[in-house]
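re: that chain from earlier
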Amino acid sequence: MLSLASYAQQDVLLSQYMFNNLLVNPAYAGSKRYASASLLYRNQWVKFDGAPKTFVATIHGPTRTRKVGLGLELAADKIGVTSRYDVYANYAYHMQLNKKLKLGLGLRGGISYFNSKLSQLVVWDKPDALFDPSSVSNILPNFGAGAYMYSNKFYMGLSVPELLSYDPSRPASFNIQNNIVPKQVRHYFFTMGGAIEINPDFVLRPAMLIKYSQNTPVEFDFNLNLLIKKVLWIGGAYRTGDAAVGMIELQATKQLRIGYAYDFTTSLLKNYSNGSHEIMIGYDFGYDIMKVKTPRYF
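^ sequence. v structure.
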């Protein structure tokens, strides 16, 4: 008898998270003075058959009181024969801790739709008589929470984007078709970053992300970017056990940002792929944008 578990990529792996922390923390929603939207496409491990391809769209902004932020995330992630589609809403409440420091507390909730096209599997041996090469789909609801403390030149966040865990080893909790179910595990994220003004033309921005999930090593992402003349970000990152990253972002106008990142794979997969490409477009809305004299650091 054939028994399989379908594992979609758990939390979408993105190299440019530091330009939009909503990707990892719901408390980031509404932390800017204006509404902000972004589109991101990632092609991971180029030339590796069945490698992940990801598309993410986000929009968030403050309400009129500026104490409440709202956001929306749409994502599509494909790995192998399995596709995952996410729709999540974000809510955050922001409070002033002192003259410079604010704290946001956030919640997110939504659903993930998984679809596995088993007919696309390559079968080397004669198929089992019980194997049904049809499509299998599941819808899993989930919710998450986070905290985000920030000022104009510093931020620190802690989040769990998906608090519910789904384990295929406990089939009683699933509507199982052909013993094929998606698996979701809880991930913990800690982020921290700052902006150091060297002079009016140069700003250094270090950032860090720590990720933990059960039964996997703790993952560290160290990032350093330099802002040149308030127009161009150039930087790099190192993700333990995975990749070194080069990135660039152009502040094309006061409202439009265009970014690109390339991952140089450092794991054993480097022998089978040509790295990963990631493209991001960001746009800031609202009348207040024209009053901002420098690009938003976080």
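The chain has one domain: 17-167+183-291.
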